[in-house]
Amino acid sequence: xxxxxxxxxxxxxxxxxxxxxLVMVILQRVVTVGLLMVFWNLVLKNTxxxxxxxxxxxxxxxxxxxxxxxxxxxxxxxxxxLRRSIKTGQISNYLMKPxxxxxxxxxxxxxxxxxxxxxxxASIILGLVINPPNHWTRLSLFxxxxxxxxxxxxxxxxxxxxxxxxxxxxxGIMNCIVHTTRLLSGAIAPLTFxxxxxxxxxxxxxxxxxxFAPINSLGILDSPISIAKSFLIAVFWASxxxxxxxxxxxxxxxxxxxxxx
Length: 261
Description:
The protein has helices spanning 2-15, 19-45, 54-71, 77-88, 91-95, 101-112, 114-130, 136-166, 171-184, 196-202, 212-216, 227-255. By secondary structure, it is mostly helical.
């Protein structure tokens, strides 16, 4: 564990030399959340029935944006590193070392992404402060769902690395998966905005587990979606996807060949 933390720390220290990038990341996050909030507030303003309060929307999108970035659900940077390393042969540097390759590469990405992860964590905290959960158990549930979100997002990132063993350029496939994730996970719009029939289908997929389920557990929006049901579905997909995809990953590694040192 100490070795992986050292990998994370080393890659993080490199990015401390680029403070302007942190400013740009914060500005990008403010603009993204602001535009989403304004858009949905305008759409729902004249909608019949009860529409979410502006504070609830702001809190939702702050937390959703932070979760998407932190777990790499909406930006599959871990998958991108796997694909790039396999295509260039850089993955051999990890294979030659006495390390578990996936934890080492995940720590590498987390170190590089620390400049993005710090504002993401701040975004989640700000969302919780603006519209706090009504009981501490809600907050505890949130962290449980956040772990499941990271596990599910890890599996989705792993898909990109696995595809690289068999497909010349899987970036197009991954772009499709990422855009689908942003739409169906609740990153762009809460699932409560979906038509009932469509929402009932989407609930059974792994996508809501990555963004909407953790936020739904906080109870900051009036949602008909059962937290218990979301939990069971999230546990199922987090377990099933990782079991299947880790086997495919090991199979892909056996297929991998490198020439030279």
